[in-house]
Amino acid sequence: MAQSIAEVLQTAWRDFLGGVETFLPHLLAMLSLILAGWLIGWVLAFVLRHLLRWARFDVLADRTGASAMLKKVTLPSASEVVASLVFWLVWAAFVLSGIGALGFTGMETLTADFVAFMPRLAVGLVIFVVGLIAANFAWRATLLAAVNSSLPSARLLSGGVRWLIVALTVAMALEQIGVAKTIMLTAFAIAFGAVMLGVAIAIGVGGGPVARRLIERQFPETPPEEKSAPDELRHL
Amino acid sequence: MPRPSILSDELLRQLVAVGQVDILVGLPTFNNAATIGDIVKTLHVGLAKHFPRERTVLISPDGGSDDGTPDLVRTAPLADAERQGSTTLRTTHRVSAPYRGLPGRAGGVRAVFAAADLLQAKAVVLIDADLISLTPDWVAELARPVWKDEADVVLPIHPRHRFEGPLLGQLVRPLLGTAYARRLHANLTTDFGCSGKLAARLVNHAMWEGDLSRPAFDVWLVATALAEDLRLGQVHLGPCRFTPRPSRTSLPELFGQVVGTAFDCLDRHAPAWCTRTEPSEPPVIGEPREAEGPDVPIAAGPLVERFRSGVRDLAPLLREILTPATLERLHTAAASEDEVPQLPDPVWVGAVYEFAASAHRGVMNREHLTQAMVPLYLGRTASFFAEIASADEPALRERITALEHEYESRRPYLLELWNSEGGR
User: Out of B78, B170, B388, B408, which residue is the most buried by the measure of CB atoms under 10 Å away?
Assistant: First the structure.
């Protein structure tokens, strides 16, 4: 009896050690891949950060208003954000490869899905960045046009234009990435439609006289007899 | 590939028939039937009276008039003109034909320059076809310094009322004059004189390829003359009155054209003006004249309202352009309870220089930057007009001189901002 127990224990431990002996190289391979990925990601981010600073990427981000938007959401500078993004993407790829090296079934599919996801993520990020730049440009242009035309609530109007474009951009980016497509599309359509309906009702019912005055000012039937002071001035 | 000429075949044919000339008067036209006859006669009288021995030509490149302006130029009767002028030894040729390219002042002037190059004119005078206050002596006043080889460019000084031309007097002229270290008194108008050599050199300048509106062209010409250290002359002429035409240019657009061009020129010519130190004054010829008509004050209320709302609503943009100190002073002025807020010279000049430096650094789209300046300009205009409303002429001149001195004394600040990386 004691001998059979001993034999079972020996076999079990032998099998276990055999398993560990088989698994350990895979684990070491995974750890080495993760470490190498971290190093490579760090180096790439370091090089990219300096390259972007040399190319005055932050100045371009300032000019397009992207820096201001990043500051608002307490993110670092544009070049730092891009470098960090590259670091995390590269390291994530190595981590997945490392996990694949463990030999678990199903990991190949996960790795393949991640690789297929990368281009969609990249395009989605590009859409988001371009959309943010366009939103900021539109905000600034609307603000200046409204202020110089003496339109009321210039900041509200321009802010509304910006956030409308940002909402549209986020919806487009998420659809491109493929995150909760149906929900995003439905939510966006409902929200956008509700906002437009509310604006239409507000203008049609509540702001009718105001809208009429604004339109009449822009398209007078007869030339105005008196010009406003800035128009009367001979500036040159 | 050779650049296509701006001179149309018809214009070229007429010019070749004229041959070499001494004085060329350019009169770009576009639907000027109402005034062109009188202007042509006035020019002929002037040429006959002051340049009887010289070979002269009147060239009128037309931008596609549909009211018969070119025919009126060619057929304007000279009988009255000859009675008023001296007997000439030579005939003043008249050429009128369309030019190639988009109609507009820039295209017309370029055609005149191309014609001057072709005819090897010694002196070129540009006259605006809407200038109804033109007198026969103007051509001589603008052409003589060039004809005598005393100047390369002659700019007119027209008398203005105290409430006219604030964009020029408060911003463009002192900014360009101070930056380029030349004390300017000339107006930015559409009439000037220049040498034929300069006209020939400017025909193929890259600036023509851009979108040069009428006022922007005048800024560019003055800035180019200053940058290249050409011999500039300033001559007192009579009052300047134009045919009233409906203006389609809003103030923000005008700002973009004029002030934007001024900032562009400062950028392009930075190597030339940044190294200059001592200002000089181009010679002024003639005596100041009186402005015509009454001095009509402008209501300050709308200007002040736009200043206050502009400083408040554009604060996020102004923070990117101006220093905190300047912005604080503007907020203080906008928040004051005075009927007309005071915007003293140091604040205004500081703001102008900070805008110029921000345009140079490209902190934002240049058109947006110049539009952001409009409310500040209106506030400054209201403040300045309130100050000088009841001032007599000597006090007014003193006040303008004080502003010019403020621009000059703060020139090192402009250079410091211009050459700094972060700027603010």
Answer: B170
